[in-house]
Amino acid sequence: MSLSILAAYILALFLAAATPGPAMFAVITSGISRGLGPALACGLGIALSDVVLVSVALAGLTVIAQTFGWLFLAIKYAGAVYLVFLGYRMWRAAATVNAGVASGERGWTRSLALGAAIGFGNPKAILFHASLMPLILDLDSLDRVDIATVLAVVFTVNVVTMGGYALLSAASSRWFRTTRAVRALNRVAGSAMIATGLVIAARS
User: By CB neighbour count within 10 A (0-12 exposed, 13-18 middle, 19+ buried), where does 70 fall?
Assistant: First the structure.
């Protein structure tokens, strides 16, 4: 696999990952309301799920998205319900400075699972990768090193993109140092989480 082909694939993946969507909003709201750690964990969960989906696409098993559609559906709704629940908790949270971030730093595992649920809850991602790769990559000539490179690229692009959103959102939360500002932050972040959950649930 040449460097020009690899660069084109990286660019295509980066544009797809950076496009606003449920994954991006989940990371941003986690960063604003719960701190950098949970936001990074959420992004890591998204990245890991995308690696799995790309592996499925590389194996030519896109039929899994149809055969086990009920499983993807269950994961999608579980993630959506959890986001709505988090949004509700943010609305009800006490307006204490730094309370949200302090408690959020202990939620790495839940945030990782949330990110994975968001990623796995979109089985169309398999079809996206399955349609993108033949346009850029010569799938018939890929060896084990090429496949490992593709998976590493997918993981890295997702981590860098979602990590950037996590850093920016967590940094912006430090601007809120008064009780009134924290209350407003809780309401905005809570509303965003609820909206993101509803978008995920409504997404076909």
Answer: exposed
> How far is the C-alpha of 127 from the C-alpha of 203, rounded, in Å?
15
* 106 in Cβ contact with 40 (< 8 Å): no
| Contact criterion met (CB below 8 Å) for 105 and 35 | yes
pLDDT, averaged across the chain: 75
pLDDT one-digit tens code per residue, 151-168:
999 999 999 999 999 998
Q: Which of 28, 194, 19 is nearest to 111 (CA)?
A: 28
Contacts of 70 (CB under 8 A, 6+ apart): none
**How high is the pLDDT of residue 116?**
87
Beta strands, E only, 6-103: none
Q: Which two structure tokens, joined as six digits, stand for 136? A: 């850029």
Residue 47 and residue 11: Cα distance in Å, rounded? 16
Residue 103 reports pLDDT greater than 50: no
Chain-centroid distance of CA 47 in Å reads 7
- Percent of the chain predicted with pLDDT > 90: 13
